[in-house]
UniProtKB/TrEMBL annotation:
Pfam families, A to Z: DUF1858
Taxonomic path: Bacteria, Pseudomonadati, Bacteroidota, Bacteroidia, Bacteroidales
UniProt superkingdom: Bacteria
Protein name: DUF1858 domain-containing protein
Stretches assigned to the DUF1858 domain: 3-63
InterPro entries cross-referenced by the UniProt entry: DUF1858, ScdA-like_N_sf
Protein's organism: Bacteroides graminisolvens DSM 19988 = JCM 15093
UniProt xrefs under Gene3D superfamilies: SP0561-like (1.10.3910.10)
């Protein structure tokens, strides 16, 4: 199996179990993969591209470190699609409309998966209301799922602000 941005973390670690330690060396944040629940759920659906986003690591750096550790030649920078980082505050965001707060780190620290709780909190939002999701990494898989369900998300530091999509865009 080749190591590209589309490869899922779970598949990567099944094919190359020695790369788990490499991931830990790249970012201590990836040690969360040792959590059995996250390993069975998140790692199975999360691509290396998403891992790079979550870890705040340039995708080409992540891929090339993993490729090197597995004995592959590196990619050239222009061979790896790069995402723009940092979005300005959207027009829909107003701190006064934050009506719910959810600390995903606390749930993860208990060895649980917070995804169902996050979705339930979001489903209770009324138009214009905002949920503040606090987590120590950018939760790219849940953000993509929320987008597919009609929500918009703006991330700022460890806070992710979620609201229902309306005529305004994020």
């Amino acid at each position: 199996m080749d190591i590209t941005l589309d490869v899922k973390v779970g598949a990567l670690l099944e094919a190359y179990p020695q790369l788990e330690q490499t991931l830990y060396e790249i970012s201590p944040m990836f040690k969360k993969l040792s959590n059995p629940i996250l390993r069975k759920t998140v790692a199975r659906v999360t691509s290396l591209k998403q891992v790079a986003e979550v870890g705040g690591i340039p995708p080409v750096d992540l891929i090339n470190r993993l490729r090197e550790a597995a004995g592959f030649s590196p990619f050239e920078t222009d061979e790896v699609e790069m995402d723009a980082e940092g979005m300005p505050q959207p027009a829909w965001f107003d701190e006064a409309f934050v009506v719910k707060h959810f600390d995903a780190d606390a749930v993860i620290a208990k060895g649980q998966n917070p995804m169902d709780d996050i979705l339930k909190q979001c489903d209770c939002l009324q138009p214009g209301e905002i949920l503040q999701l606090t987590v120590s990494f950018r939760p790219v898989p849940i953000i993509k799922l929320l987008h597919s369900r009609g929500y918009v998300v703006w991330s700022s530091g460890s806070s992710n602000y979620i609201t229902r999509n309306s005529s305004t865009t994020d």
